[in-house]
Write a structure and sequence with these properties.
The complex is a heterodimer of chains A (311) and B (326). In chain A, helix 2 packs across helix 8. Chain A has eleven helices and eight strands. Chain A is of the alpha/beta class and 311 residues long. Chain A has a six-stranded parallel β-sheet with strand order 2-1-3-4-8-7, sandwiched between helices. A two-stranded antiparallel sheet of chain A has the order 5-6. Chain B has twelve helices and 14 strands. The chains are: A alpha/beta (311), B alpha/beta (326). The interface between A and B is large, with 44 and 45 residues.
């Protein structure tokens, strides 16, 4: 992996989210969606640290993690359209989707709830000696949930191969995280759990990859869990339809100068810029093909609605 | 082969069986490994199976139930212990939003073969926060199986069934039954999930009970027999899957129904049985359905106050008398 590949993956996530927002506006997506525009460098950087068999657990803002781990774009679109997708057959939609084939434990639409589940995947890895690690992403606001507190401590005392990536995008849903905690950095709390914690530039794919690789390596070697706080900014609302009146004027515009794709663009010489243009075009075509394919996926048969409550 | 065991010994025997016969089982909870549990349910297991298979957790019900889910999804078969059923409320998200939903919401792509073992109900002097019988909360949650063993044999058989099940199963024991002794079929094949049982036949009235109220209902039936009233006592055993057929078949014979549980009345699972009977047994019923349960109040701690409200055999006797018009 390197710059062109990272750019391609981040551009794929961005394009996916932008296309999804347009589909939402067009009435093709029935439920609420939570987009990760601006935060793409975090799943893409983290994915560089992972191999097949490593588990990833994300949040309802987790489309980027699914895509970074290779979950099929058509399946994602179809799932969010309420169609009979190969992912969850339309039963999960945007905020709770999962893909066992890609070791994607899945999203969770209860804030922080993925962390205990991810600890369980880490327990399996530890007890079976599989060598896998379990990476879980949460937002800054989730650091105030009891489930996260319990799971970090549990993982620490059991030395579980767990990596907690905190995507600090400034906003705890629709409130500033600085108003919700009395620490300057959330990673400071790592000391309270007796685990390593560090802060990285979450808009820098290489920085994220380096920090997560360090944590993953430690976890794989039996060194237990770590916390990586990745600083980023949300370019969009908390959810589709969030008018963001709570954000100061100019904040999003300034963030657009610092976001990971723009940053690569700003540093690109004409030759690289031309390559990036080509990647953008290829990604746009790829995403559009996925939308077209997703539209061809049938809606689920209502006669199946009671299936799978139990085994 | 049958052994005479106390209820708590039967639990221990079932857990020993699970850890011994299934490499994928792990057992965890508060004070379960080195201490052996506050009631001795896991006594000796850590010594025999070691920390790789049974270990203590922090006092973090949400954390370790979520961990059980993640472990079950990825290949283990965890048995997680909630020391007192009352403590499950701090982890309700795990029951309602996580453990129960993953199979359905993933369209059957994940399964969660885990057991949540707990013990419930009042005991003399236990306060409101250590006396709940929360089965109705779990029964209201689609995706969970719910087992309430009422005898030492069922404590053994139903816990083994739960371990083998590919669904998440809540096994709620009754602390007050732990000292009771009875024959346990230790070599019986593992039973499938579900199934109510007629524990005492009778033709005049059907009494449906579970957990501690089964023995209270059998005691009541003995007293009623002396009055010439023959009560048929059904141990419901599982609230999910619910074996209503056994209840309906009995009501078709008796025409009368009493439901007895230790949980408080409003919204209790007895209301569900009564509603099902009204919907499906209306033509058979010759008198209104009667319910026995705790009045709607938090459990008092003082034994003299508990005695005034905790349902016992006498309450079942009184309810039966109402249904037969005596």
């Amino acid at each position: 992996m390197g710059l062109p590949d990272d750019y391609r993956l981040m551009a794929r996530i961005r394009r996916f989210e932008e296309r999804l927002a347009a589909l939402k506006d067009a009435g093709e997506i029935p439920g609420s969606i939570h987009l990760c525009n601006g935060q793409e460098a975090i799943p893409v950087g983290a994915a560089r640290a992972l191999r097949d068999g490593d588990y990833v657990t994300a949040t309802y803002r987790g489309h980027g993690w699914a895509i970074a781990r290779g979950v099929d774009l058509t399946g994602l679109f179809a799932e969010m359209m309420g169609r009979d997708s190969a992912l969850c057959g339309g039963r999960a939609a945007s905020p709770y989707l999962t893909d066992p084939d890609r070791w994607f434990i899945g999203e969770n639409s209860i804030v922080g709830a993925g962390v205990p589940v991810a600890a369980g995947a880490a327990l399996t890895a530890q007890r079976t000696g599989s060598g896998a690690v379990s990476v879980v992403s949460i937002g800054d606001g989730a650091m105030n949930q009891g489930n996260v507190h319990e799971a970090i401590n549990l993982a620490a005392v059991l030395d579980l191969p767990l990596v907690l990536v905190v995507e600090n995008n400034v906003y705890s849903e629709m409130s500033r995280i600085e108003d919700m905690v009395r620490v300057r950095q959330l990673a400071e709390r790592a000391a309270g759990y007796g685990v390593p914690g560090r802060v990285v530039d979450g808009n820098d794919c290489d920085a994220v990859a380096e920090a997560v690789t360090e944590a993953v390596t430690r976890a794989r070697d039996g060194g237990g869990p770590s916390i990586v706080e990745a600083m980023t900014e949300r370019l969009v609302g908390h959810y589709s339809g969030d008018v963001q009146h709570y954000r100061p004027a100019g904040e999003v515009a300034a963030a657009r100068e610092r976001e990971p794709l723009a940053r690569i663009r700003q540093a690109a010489d004409p030759e690289l810029a031309a390559r990036l243009d080509l990647i953008d075009a290829e990604v746009a075509a790829e995403v559009e093909a996925a939308v077209t394919a997703a539209r061809a996926v049938p809606f689920p048969d209502p006669a199946t609605v009671k299936e799978h409550v139990h085994v | 082969m049958s052994e005479s065991l106390r209820y708590i010994q039967a639990v221990n025997a079932a857990l020993t069986w699970a850890l011994d016969s299934r490499e994928d089982t792990v057992y965890f909870g508060e004070d379960v490994a080195l201490p052996g549990g506050p009631f001795g349910a896991t006594k000796g297991l850590h010594k025999r199976f070691g920390s790789a298979r049974i270990f203590d957790t922090p006092i973090s019900e949400t954390g370790f139930l979520g961990m059980a889910l993640g472990a079950a999804m990825t290949g283990l078969r965890p048995i997680a212990e909630i020391m007192y059923a009352d403590f499950s409320f701090v982890a309700m998200d795990q029951f309602v939003n996580q453990i129960s939903t993953i199979r359905y919401s993933s369209n059957g792509r994940w399964k969660a073969p885990l057991v949540i073992r707990m013990q419930q109900g009042y005991s003399p002097g236990a306060c409101a926060q250590h006396s709940h019988s929360p089965e109705a909360y779990f029964a209201h949650t689609p995706g969970l199986r719910i087992a309430l063993p009422a005898t030492p044999d069922d404590a053994y058989q139903m816990l083994r069934t739960a371990v083998v099940s590919d669904d998440p199963v809540v096994v709620a024991e009754a602390r007050m039954l732990y000292p009771t002794r009875g024959p346990v079929r230790t070599d019986a094949p593992v039973e499938p999930v579900g199934g109510a049982r007629v524990v005492r036949p009778g033709g005049d009235v059907t009494v449906v009970a579970w957990s501690r109220m089964v023995s209270a209902s059998v005691e009541a039936a003995g007293a009623l027999a002396e009055e010439g009233i023959e009560a048929e006592v059904i141990d419901l055993r599982w609230l999910n899957p619910l074996d209503f057929d056994t209840v309906a078949a009995s009501v078709a014979r008796t025409g009368r129904l009493v439901v007895a549980h230790e949980a408080n009345l409003t919204g209790g699972f007895g209301a569900e049985i009564a509603a099902r009977a009204a919907a499906e047994c209306f033509a058979d019923l010759r008198s209104p359905v009667a319910r026995v349960g705790l009045p709607d109040l938090p459990m008092p701690a003082a034994p003299i106050l508990q005695s005034a409200v905790v349902p016992e055999a006498a309450d079942v006797v009184a309810a039966v008398r109402r249904t037969v018009g005596r």
